[in-house]
Structure formats: C-alpha cells, structure tokens
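step: validate -> pass
step: tokenize input -> pass
step: predict -> running
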Amino acid sequence: MALKSAAIFEKKDPFIKTQGADLVKELVQSISLKYIPIFAVLQKTVKTIVSKIKVIIQNYGQFILKMEMDLSLMAECELLMPHSQQLMMI
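step: predict -> pass
step: emit ->
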C-alpha cells in the first residue's frame, strides 16, 4: 500500500520522486524487516495453540464417548441384576 502511494507521489512531483519516494520505500523496508519476523512467530504460535486445542477437544470427545458407553453398560447391568437374583433364588 505504501509502495503504491510512493508511486503515485512520484508521478506528481519531481522532488517527491527523488527523495520522498525513497524515504517511503526505506520506511516500508525497515518496518518489514522489524515486524514481519514477529508476525511469523505469532502466526506459528497461534497455529500451535489451535492445534493443541483441537487435540484437547478430540480427547474430550473420546472421553465423553467412553463415559457414555460405561454408563450404558452400567444401566444394562442394573437392568439385568433383578433377573440374575431371581435366577439365583430358583
């Protein structure tokens, strides 16, 4: 964006063409050199956090499914208990 602005100013004023555009380009390059590595690290950090959250959600989902299966098995056992006690009495 700033480079496009510099190109527009270059066409309008010869002074800006020689000095102003160079200053804008230098500013953009210095900002790029300072902040692009920071953004790259932040992007990598965010990706790592998101992937860890996905793993946690998957593990939680598996835990819930296991709990549901355990509860249904317990419910089935409770339903069968009276019948087994009746069979033992016979």
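step: describe -> The mean pLDDT is 75.
step: cleanup -> pass
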